[in-house]
Amino acid sequence: MSHDHDDHHAVPADIALRVKALETVLTQRGYVSTETLDAIIDAYENRIGPRNGARVVARAWADPDFKARLLDDANPVIEEMGLAGVEGTDIRVIENTPQVHNMVVCTLCSCYPWALLGLPPSWYKSFAYRSRAVSEPREVLKEFGVELDRETEVRVWDSTAERRYLVMPRRPEDSAGLDESSLAALVTRNGMIGTALV
Ligand code: FE
């Protein structure tokens, strides 16, 4: 499911026809069955949502060893949890701290950690977000209701077909004593894109 940035960021009006044509060729030649395609679409539309990412963040909040491994190389950790996606991309987890706030964008199109967050929200794919997240990230964050201290550095990570990012929000200070599933319930999709605090 990887894609080439250069030929798809202007989405053609006849995209549905192109998808249909591609599906027909792939299924007629026996590369993929329609049942497989339906299962993939169902998975990303209905079964996988931001809860997978929230489970990863909650476990990292609760378990320092897990967190260290996750920040070092997220891919084997995500695979162990059974959350690796079909897109076969490199996932990197980046941690928010009092000094650094991270936010994620795909400036060329809409690359996104599907396996952890499901399908991207429409604003993530909008031209305004893709351009302004880079040119004026603090303004964009303000519009999302995120006010940062002036001393907090903002880092913007540009996703690609090969590498996608998940933000680990800061653990709320009043969350001591909560178990992993209660922690996971605090973690929002936008928190993991970096456009919200938790
Ligand atoms: Fe993209």
Q: Main attributes?
A:
two-stranded parallel ribbon; 4 strands; globular; alpha/beta; 198 residues; Nitrile Hydratase, Chain A; binds fe (iii) ion
Structure description:
The protein is α/β, with parallel strands linked by helices and 198 residues long. It has a single domain (34-193), classed as Nitrile hydratase alpha /Thiocyanate hydrolase gamma (Nitrile Hydratase, Chain A), CATH 3.90.330. It is 49% helix and 12% strand. The protein has twelve helices and four strands. The protein has helices at residues 5-8, 15-28, 34-47, 50-62, 64-72, 74-80, 114-117, 122-125, 127-135, 137-143, 180-186, 189-193; strands at 90-95, 100-105, 153-158, 163-168. A two-stranded parallel ribbon has the order 1-4. The longest helix has 14 residues, at 15-28. The mean pLDDT is 89. The structure holds fe (iii) ion. Residues 5, 106, 108-111 line the site of fe (iii) ion.
Fraction of residues in helices? Answer: 40-55%
Q: Tell me the domain tally.
A: 1
CATH architecture term = Alpha-Beta Complex
Could you give a short account of the major beta sheet? Answer: 2 strands, parallel
Counting DSSP E segments of at least 2 residues, the number of strands comes to 4
Radius of gyration: 18 Å
Count of runs of 4 or more consecutive helical residues:
12
Strand content: 5-15%
* Unique ligands: fe (iii) ion
The shape, in one word, is globular
Please identify the top-level CATH class.
Alpha Beta
The ordered H/E elements are HHHHHHEEHHHHEEHH
| Structural class determined from secondary elements | alpha/beta
Q: What's the pLDDT, averaged over the residues?
A: 89
